[in-house]
Amino acid sequence: MSSASSTTTGAAKPSSTRAKPANKWEAAADWTDGRLGIYSLAKANLRKIFPDHWSFMLGEICLYSFVIIILTGVYLTLFFKPSMGEVIYNGSYVPLKGIGMSEAYASTLDISFEVRGGLLIRQIHHWAALVFVAAMLVHMMRVFFTGAFRKPREINWVFGFLLLVLGMFDGFFGYSLPDDLLSGTGIRFMEGAILAVPLVGTYLQMFLYGGEFPGHDIIPRFFTIHVLLIPGIMLGLLVAHLILVFYHKHTQWAGPGKTEKNVVGMPLMPVYMAKAGGFFFLVFGLLAAISAIASINPIWAYGPYRPDQVSTDAQPDWYMGFSEGLIRVMPGWEISLWGHTLNLGVFVPLMIFPLVLVAIAVYPFIEGWITGDKREHHILDRPRNAPVRTALGAAWISLYLVLLIGGGNDLFATHLHLSINSITYFVRVGFFVVPVITFIVTKRWCLGLQRRDKEKVLHGRETGVIKRLPHGEFVEVHAQLPQKDLFKLTAHEQNQPVELPAQADENGVARKAGVLTRTRAKLSRGYYGEGGQIPKPTAEEHHEITSGHGHH
């Protein structure tokens, strides 16, 4: 009796209503789905809608180039020897035969000249790294200028920022691994910057370099950081980034039928996946073609690293030009405190660089605090409709370009036949002047485009047809814009500046606004007050003009 009752205490799982599998592949799929739940997961997500716009492909280029970096990097690790042990080169590259060098440099030469396809893989790996950082930078610029970082995507902006910074430093560690004269110069440069940090600089240098440079630990440590530590962190951040993109749904440009609560576009499967797959092979093929045509980092031309030599035109990869320029144009100031020398010529730029990066990382939170906007935003801004934000982004880009000139002041001097001192002084002045000018010009440009949009909404587009009125006046006939264009030009929101609280409460007791409150109100007026945006046309204004009053 007890046995019979025990068999009826639990409800059996209903059997599948699906007909018997047609073949072994369907049977295998059913077996897998019964244990992993793939079908239900795919059913819920593979029909997810993604909007279609060319600018969204920038993020895909980041992803695809990262995949290419991983694939080519795995191949290179099979042949690279991360060792500082001394060997005498006896390979196929004749000019370096009999030269003493590290195993790291010798193995890189072997990859380039002995391993089948090794040089092409090295080229693809390096070019993909450059494209990866460039695509991330341009992708973040697109996100910044369109306001795609606003709630609920602030954390995803931080993830993207961390991916950009880690990609920059992983690129530096990667091109340092061959131990050639160029990369060795860069490592020495980095060592000097680290040693300029007061109190902890020597400890950081010993932790990273394992002793005096050049030593025996630097390449093995850089190799571990380059192939294991940073890529592992980046992979985790990338997965988190994509999960949040999926969870928050994709942003989209304003247009008819598009709201903050829907997404208009194509399903992930099969349309978007087919396009994405084709785009991946297009990116891979283009990188392979560039790598086969344009040589990059020819280490055999530089020779092995020697502390008493510096390669001609020693330059880091472009994404490190910002930090290089800061140090090159900074005056060589030094001060002595309590018997210790503080190298301000290196320490000050070393502090400015991370401060600029931190400002980029926290900007979404700063703008959210200024506006006080707690709503979710899934519709993108046109850059012209956020003049201050757009001007800030343009000012940062101009600052980067100025410092890039400073980082390559020797090349600009030799190629343009200019004085290197003149270029350095130009960069010093431009560091303070160019971003301000760029900000003012960009803001006025955006306001001018807003006025033009308002004019087009109220008076229509110019047709080029000239009409003579009965009293003799010649006017150009304007054609009314289609409804979709009117919607596009008037769909943006216009935030109002935050007002200071009343100087007295309901009981007449005076209260003084705090420093943060006054600062927030002042910044808010700068963003959205008079001179910060052009009032967009109202429906009443449009109706009055198009009804015949002043409209041709």
What labels describe this entry?
552 residues; mainly alpha; single chain; 8 strands; two-stranded antiparallel ribbon
Describe the structure.
This protein has 552 residues and is mostly helical. The protein has 20 helices and eight strands. The protein has a two-stranded antiparallel sheet with strand order 1-4. Helix 6 packs antiparallel against helix 7 (154-176). Residues 1-15 have low confidence and may be disordered.
Count of discrete alpha- or pi-helical segments spanning 4 or more residues: 20
Secondary-structure element order, N to C: HHHEHEEHHHHHHEHHHEEHHHHEEHHH
Give the rounded overall mean pLDDT: 87
Total E-strand runs: 8
* Rg computed from alpha carbons, rounded to a whole number of angstroms: 30 Å
Describe the structure concisely.
With 552 residues, this protein is mainly alpha-helical. It is 60% helix and 6% strand.
